[in-house]
What does this fold into?
Amino acid sequence: MTLDVRYREAVPGIGVSGMGERMPMTDAPAPRARRGSYAKGQQTRQRIVDEAVVVFGRSGVTAGSLREVASRVGLTPAGLMHHFASKEELFAEVLRQRDERVRAAAGDPHEHTLVEQMQKVVAHNATTRGLTSLYTLVVAEAGDPAHPSHEAFAERYRHGAETAADLLRAGQAAGEVRADIDPEHAARLLSAVMDGLQQQWLLDDSVDMPALFAEFVRGYLRPPA
It folds into this structure.
């Protein structure tokens, strides 16, 4: 999992909005109906996203079926596409909501706070198994050079590593990160450890991700006491 999230680059089609149901055009004002229809459309849209997490988290985005997602919500495939024009658009919304939740739980890192923020992310991910499983599956799928999101996810990791390296340098200058580590290497190792712990936890939920990540931070990043 990368620290920085860039939705438009990670998934093609993120620019398509599709917010709620389309309202019929009429000259007669009907504010109550519009509000009710919009709210109902938003509720249906959120149900679609929630069920997509289940389907994509189990089967991956490539194999996950929009038909199954629609069925779980009680819609036809055409009805689902009234809210999301494509699988890519639906997946983009799933990712956006996932990362908004991560950001709300952990906040954004500033200057020397990188390690603390990443520890909060690890702890948060341990409470959202479905979304964590989905992200792990999607990254594995994107490892195929022929996958449409391959380069986008590679760039996502590159950009996250660059951001983390800058923050690690700030931590070194403040004496909060060991001076003898290479910030570029450490930045890649941080995301690798996080991803690896998530994979082990998904296979065996007795794995204590927060404790193991804290041990990695203590032994690798923190200056000797």
In short: Residues 31-63 form the longest helix (33 residues). Residues 1-33 have pLDDT under 50 and may be disordered. The CA atoms of residues 123 and 211 lie 9 Å apart.
